[in-house]
Amino acid sequence: AGVLTVGTSTGANDLTVQTLVGEYTQKGMNHGRKYYQKKPKADESVFLYFWDDRDGDENSGWWFGDQVGGSQVWALCQSQSMSPPALKWRVPWDQEPRPGILTMTFKASSAAGPSAAVRSSSAPASSSAASKVGESSWSAKLKAVIDQVATAEKTTSEAIEGAKSSLAAGGDVALVRSGLQQAQELITSTQTALASDAREAKAAGPAGQSVVSALLRSSPKLRSLLASIAAELKKLQAPTQPAGAPPKSALAAAVAKTPTPPSQPPKVTEAKIKEAKKAVEALHKQLAAIDEEVMNVAESAKAVLDNPPEDLNSEEGKATINEVEAAAKKAQDALVAARMDIQKQVATMAVSAQFADMRLECAGMQKTLAEIQVKLLPNKNVKALLQQKATARKAVEQISEKIDAAEAELEQALEVAPAASEEQTSEADITTAQAKFDAAKKSVDGASTLLDSRLKFAAGLIKDDLVELKTRMTEICNKAEELGKTLSRQRKGLDLEKNLEVCQGRVESAEEAVANYEKAEAPFLAGGEVTDLAKSTTAVEQAHKRGEAAIMQARALIKKQTADAKMAAESASKAALERLASFTEKVDAASKKMTDIASSTFEKKYAAVLGPAFEALVACEGKVREFVEVASPFAGASAETPLEDLRGAGTSCAQADRAAAAAITDAKKAMAEKAREKKQCGGLAGALAQLQLRLGAAQQEIAKAKKTVGAADKLLKSREVVEGNEEKLAKVLQGVEKLELLIEAGGKLSDEDAKEVVSITDDADKVLKLVGDSVAKNLSLVPAEMKAKLTELEGSAKNLQKRVKEILNKTEEDRARVRCEMHIKEAETQADAVETALNNAECAEGPYLSGMEEIPADDARGVLAACEAAKTEVDKAIASARAFVKERTAELKTAKGANVAELKEAVEKCGARVEEVAQKLVRYKADLESRSKNVRMQDTRAAVQAAEEQSAQLAEEVKPLEAKKAKAKAEGEGEEAADEAKPSEEEVQATCERLATADQAAQAKLTAARTLLAKWTLKDAQYGKEIPDLQKRLKAVELAVAAGRKTASEYEQSFVADKLCAHANELLEKGKEEVKKITEICAPLVEKGGDQFLVAV
């Protein structure tokens, strides 16, 4: 069977949650779901089960309880899932869900899961001093827990009963509510204290199990008390039962009475008032005495806790503890009595204005009692606190002993180990120190692990002591880490001596390889003719490869040993780095020598072989040198270099860069061509490799130069940013200083001065925002030398912002006055602009306003275009004015000043004028739409008419053909009649061309008319009657065009058929003649049998 682990991520301090946390195993089925039981500890009985809706939807879901379907429950999740849900748990069951209060983890195996891991990780605690508390100590703790819960229960019950009696006697509802809330706070603080006790008892193992069980039994009681208080507080709300219905309880009856006091309030005599005042004064004295008594208890408890008895079970120890706890109990009894006295006194005071102040005093005293209770609560169980402190002290002593032992071992290792600043020591000393360090490190790690495991679950007194030990443990770990680093450096120093000898051998091998290369190059260095060029070249290439390999190996080893030398002891490191620097110089000299030799002999070896590729490389190297020379001024560029010099050099660099890039491309192409030749004829591998090396070197040079140029370009841009912003700030500073002088003059600012203040400060705000954004954007991008200037610039901007803000504060009234005046004028300007735009629009429709509602379409289109443009301008003006009105309306909600009312009136007038124009514009748009439709209808009519005219023209073209056809039909179908009706071929072609032209024109007009007419619908009220008529006319045109096309097509097809027949007859006659000729030729064979061709044999 699987194991279900219930955990928590947010409820570690909740006693109820601690009751539910643990491992659960499946026990059976209930209401169609599996139910689980917590693995028992002592007398714990916790079940997790599902309950269906047989008792109502509100009771359906997954429950935690003491038994399946039992009356004692702790948590609820209203989920219908088949397995225990992981979210939305209510703990307690009648509260709102809390995220992470309970978590569910299921494992298929019954092997130890997270809970077992926790138990195993904390197993040492069972053998620690924390778990060695005797049975008598935990028995005392158990008694203290029971007494604490009983006290809370008694206090809460008294508070509830007192509240009921006070309300029944007509007491103050607010005072009663305050007393109940104080009792609620007492229960909450008790729960928190018991949760802490539960954690310590669980950490103690079996010895504290009785306390854990008592706490589990106490938790439902405390929740029940909280629920009772919550119910009574809820009843104090306004009653919801119907008028006249009997109240459900005495408390509800009292609440029902309070909203409607009697019409004849009881008489309050002077004697009653004096008596009440005297009672309240006595209560104040009683509270002062209780507070003093609680303070004495706290001091006594502190003295005992600071200097506890050596033996808690001795007569002296028991007497001391009993004395403090008896004093605490006496103080608690006095506190409860005082609370009851206050409630009784409130009940005796009528609901009258004469007692209002005294009722408030009583409420304050109840609050004071709650505060005193909080101070008393920790001191009621001194024995338990002493036991906790003793347990904590033993646990801390155990850990402290381990830390002391680890520290002693570490000190021994430090005594034999060399100091971090000492010179290199011998291998024997390092080995001895390493052995002691390893043993000390093991002890330190063990002590640190033990401390961390205890600290993870510690709480209360022990946690503070463990935190102090943690600080000490951290210092010891730091010492151990430093010693480990020192020993590591010493070990590296020993290894370094051996490795330096190897480095020296590699350097000597590289120098020897370069010398061999120089010997191979001797024939080419001599200057004369080389007898065997191919053999000499091959030898040089092989020697060059060996030299490069040797140099590369030496450099790699030097680099590695340099890194190791930096980690060695200081003296050894210094000497090793000096030797490695000398090795580097030798390798660099050998590499340079080989490069110089190769460059000097390259042309002699490969120029003839490589041809154009070599020439392209030489040209490329020349362009690269030019670029490097042009870029050289950038190498010394700084923040002091003039910008013009940087810009000029940048332009030259760009041109040289393009030229060098083009030369590199040409060289690559030429080398690629040579590489193809190599595949064909071979023998160019070495030459191409050398060429590639030189090209690579050129590319490296140009890359370095580009890096320099890039850094300078970055510097240039950052300088431009800085100087541009400095100019902006200088202008702002000039304006700010001007305003500061103006303000220093004193007196009320004139309108002109105030306007200038508004203008300058508005511009300053915009500029300072732009400068701030620019600095924030570029601060992380600029070179290091410019960051200081940008930071200084940012500081200047902030300083100016501060000065601008001061100016704004000093001129707030004058600016408000001038802004109002400016906005008033702007309101008038906005309204005038809207009305002017509307007037222009009305002028644009002038031709229509002259009485001609329908004008020629061509003229109308121009007028309508002007109207449309004018309408757009009106829309823009209205949008601008509305935005102005909206902004000013929002500002007026918080505006202050003498002329705010005037501005409000101006804004309202502007808005009214704008909306009036907007209404006119609606009508204007409607007229414009109607006139646009009128123009479209004119175009449609004209298109239909044009189609009809073109259709008529087509009919005129085919009319002669139809007449001839009719005449031919009437006279008969004879050949003579047919010949007489036939026109010539030229006439027919001319007729067909005329018909095709007329048909195309008619079709084009018909299509144009159809397109325009398709845009109209019968729903258009203005032209709904005319559209069907136009559609009929267009349909007639379509039929006429189709008829004309048919006649023309028949005429053309008749002509084509006649022509085809004539052609076929001609071909037939020719065929007959050919057959006749063939027959005559074949006659001797066919008719006479070919006798004349026979020959006698």
Write the layout of secondary structure elements.
Blueprint: E1 3-7, H1 15-20, E2 22-30, E3 33-38, E4 47-51, E5 61-65, E6 73-77, E7 103-107, H2 114-121, H3 123-126, H4 135-168, H5 173-203, H6 209-235, H7 250-257, H8 270-306, H9 315-348, H10 356-376, H11 382-416, H12 427-457, H13 461-520, H14 522-525, H15 533-566, H16 570-610, H17 612-635, H18 643-681, H19 685-744, H20 751-778, H21 784-810, H22 812-844, H23 846-849, H24 857-892, H25 900-971, H26 975-981, H27 985-1014, H28 1026-1086
Antiparallel strand pairs: 1-2, 1-7, 2-3, 3-4, 4-5, 5-6
Explain the overall architecture:
This protein is mainly α and 1097 residues long. The chain has helices spanning 15-20, 114-121, 123-126, 135-168, 173-203, 209-235, 250-257, 270-306, 315-348, 356-376, 382-416, 427-457, 461-520, 522-525, 533-566, 570-610, 612-635, 643-681, 685-744, 751-778, 784-810, 812-844, 846-849, 857-892, 900-971, 975-981, 985-1014, 1026-1086; strands at residues 3-7, 22-30, 33-38, 47-51, 61-65, 73-77, 103-107. It has a seven-stranded antiparallel sheet with strand order 6-5-4-3-2-1-7. Strand 3 (33-38) and strand 4 form a beta hairpin. Helix 15 packs antiparallel against helix 16 (570-610). Residues 109-134, 238-265 and 974-980 have low confidence and may be disordered.
